Amino acid sequence: MIEKKAAKILARAIKKADPIIIAKHQHPDWDADGSAFGLAYLLKASYPRKKIYVVGDRLTKNKDFEPGTAWESKQVYPSTTLLITVDTANLERLDFKGFADMPHTIKIDHHPDTDPYAQYNLVDDSAIACAQMIVQLAQILKWKWTPEAANYLYKGILTDSGRFLHAKTNAETFEAAAFVNKKGVNFQKVNDELYVDCLKNRQWWNYAFNKMTISQQGVASLVLLPSDYEDRKLNYEQIKSALSIMSGIEEIKIWVLVVEWKNDLKVSLRSRKYDVASIAQKYHGGGHKLAAGAKLETLENVTTLVNDLNSLIVQTDTQSKKTIHQPQENKESKKHGTS
Ligand SMILES: [Mn+2]
């Protein structure tokens, strides 16, 4: 839950600011896009005279709050410029080049605050989605609502919570969802927009599922190369969505997706139980205990990575067998989610 004191600090900074630039992480997901646009529509409704921009890649063709091409190359920003970043844990991942030139910066995020890069860092890592935090801020600060703001923020909550299934989903999540519903969200419509898929994507999943391999210990791995996706006219998000075909399968304890994209080997690691972040750290990555990301240097490293994950399963299972007769609450799994 966001403290009133923290919300007031944000409100004071916003009152003094013009323009306000809202930035998010590279390759935005719906929580990043939803938080950024949700916040932009709320601020525009509440402070109609302020200039508000959303920078970086977008998930849709929405042209609102576009900064124009000149903006990012601008040498001097007015001293009243405020940058608000959403859903972005590390500065390295921020989809905005002008950070160093920003006179005022605020970070609003729900990941562990390992990189407090802004002048003010409003972080709640108990929140399932950054969008949930924006809804709470709007409630505390009594911002004006529009149906667009409500729809964008609901998409962030719905996707980061895995449709209200992931570990950190709680009463606050449902309260935020109920609140945006009263502000104009049509649950059915949003669900159809996000989850009704096209045949091309399902055929891609089918192809990917057949390419997946599973180790004896239960590590599923899927390596997707340009030769796999080039002829299919898929964007990065669509390619990466193949990660989800490996989830929710009893025999698969850890699942790994490696995508070769623009000369990078991007790795996504997921599990229901095992601390995959500890392995991700070995491979230029990190993240949550059950959902982490990494980068590989060569394709040969996939074997090493899978071996490390096999060992992680064996070690964790041996450890839990040893401690089985002294039951204790697993605090770790409560602290970390899969957002
Ligand atoms: Mn998020």
Q: What report would you give on this structure?
A:
This protein is an alpha/beta fold. The protein folds into two domains: 4-194, inorganic pyrophosphatase (n-terminal core) (Alpha-Beta Complex); 199-322, Diaminopimelate Epimerase, Chain A, domain 1 (Roll), CATH 3.10.310.30. The chain is built from twelve helices and eleven strands. The chain has helices at 4-16, 30-46, 130-141, 147-160, 171-182, 187-195, 199-211, 226-229, 236-240, 276-280, 301-322, 331-335; strands at 20-23, 52-54, 82-86, 104-109, 120-123, 213-214, 219-224, 254-261, 264-271, 286-287, 291-296. Helix 2 links the parallel strand 1 and strand 2 (52-54). The longest helix is centred in the last third of the chain and has 22 residues, at 301-322. The two termini are 17 Å apart. 37% of the residues are buried. The model is unreliable at 331-339 (pLDDT under 50). Manganese (II) ion (MN) binds at residues 31, 87, 110, 129-130, 160, 339. Residues 231-313 form the DHHA1 domain.
Strand order of the largest sheet: 6-7-8-9-11-10
* SS summary, helix count: 12
CATH topology of the largest domain: inorganic pyrophosphatase (n-terminal core)
The portion of residues assigned to helices is 25-40%
Question: What are the low-pLDDT stretches, counting only 5+ consecutive residues below 50?
Answer: 331-339
Number of strand segments? 11
Along the chain, the helix and strand elements come as: HEHEEEEHHHHHEEHHEEHEEHH
The secondary structure category is: alpha/beta
Q: From the coordinates shown, what is the CATH architecture of the largest domain? A: Alpha-Beta Complex
Give the termini separation: 17 Å
